[in-house]
Amino acid sequence: MPGQSWTTADIPGQQGRTAVITGANTGLGFETAKALAAKGASVILAVRNADKGKAAANQITAAGPGADVTVHQLDLTSLDAIRRSTDELRTKLDRIDLLINNAGVMYTPKQRTADGFELQFGTNHLGHFAFTGLLLDLLLPVPDSRVITVSSVGHRIRAKINFDDLQWDSSYSRVAAYGQSKLANLMFTYELQRRLSGKGKTIAAAAHPGASNTELMRNMPAALRGLSAVIAPLITQSAEAGALPTLRAATDPNVLGGQYYGPSGLGEARGKPVLVKSSQQSHDVEIQRRLWTVSEELTGVKFPV
């Protein structure tokens, strides 16, 4: 297993494999899609804005004229839209090799999804929970198929699963709400892997990009934005580098279910992709199972495992 020198050159050939990537029109998702397409995968950009998705697909095919890239509309803020999206995908695909739950929002002002969920929890966790559950049977029979969910170092920051007020009805902290959603991403991964174990050919793993310079930072509180502009060049890395943990989790033959990948550097802010540890809280099995049950109830989606 390569140590701390893993790059896109280490991605095995992906010919014959189909990858569905949410939020793939920009940032980390775009770089993930670009790298997988360059290795021969058929890549589906599952995006909210079809025009931006088409522009991203054109960029990828321009960089690699033989790239197989298509655009598929997905709005993770609406359960009805997610069901329409998955229904349409199922008419086009008979298998999925890689499902990469990459899309996300960060530090948004208090907003609601179409179903009344707090936007960060609703998009980052519940949207992907539903999307995965409705497509999982297309992965289960496929050798070395994987569900990769992108979390964040933010899962450690003021983060807990606040079952008494999951939707932040009584108060709101954009930082704590983001932390809850990213902690939920990890707990979802660990519980999904436990359910997959011994029941099919699919594994679930997670990754985080460290401190990557992407559009995700656009909602950072004004008080922090100025400071970030000064220190960002010192502590962040490019979206291309930030995508490497996701790519490793998705393609390294040595990856095991339930593993978590992130940058190797100080504070996991930047560096080559390596196996990292998530918070002790994220491994609480009782909370994982409770979150799963609540997520099923909120989304109406039952998994085939």
Fold topology:
Layout: E1 18-22, H1 27-38, E2 42-47, H2 50-63, E3 68-73, H3 79-92, E4 98-101, H4 119-135, E5 145-150, H5 174-196, E6 202-207, H6 222-235, H7 239-242, H8 244-251, E7 260-263, E8 273-275, H9 285-299
Parallel strand pairs: 1-2, 1-4, 2-3, 4-5, 5-6, 6-7
Antiparallel strand pairs: 7-8
Written overview of the protein:
The protein is an alpha/beta fold and 305 residues long. It has one domain: NAD(P)-binding Rossmann-like Domain (Rossmann fold). Helix content is 40%, strand content 13%. The protein is built from nine helices and eight strands. Strands 3-2-1-4-5-6-7-8 form an eight-stranded mixed beta sheet, sandwiched between helices. β5, α5 and β6 form a beta-alpha-beta unit. α3 packs parallel to α4. The protein starts with 17 loop residues before the first strand and ends in a 6-residue tail after the last helix. The model has no long low-confidence stretch (mean pLDDT 93). Belongs to the short-chain dehydrogenases/reductases (SDR) family. It comes from Kibdelosporangium banguiense.
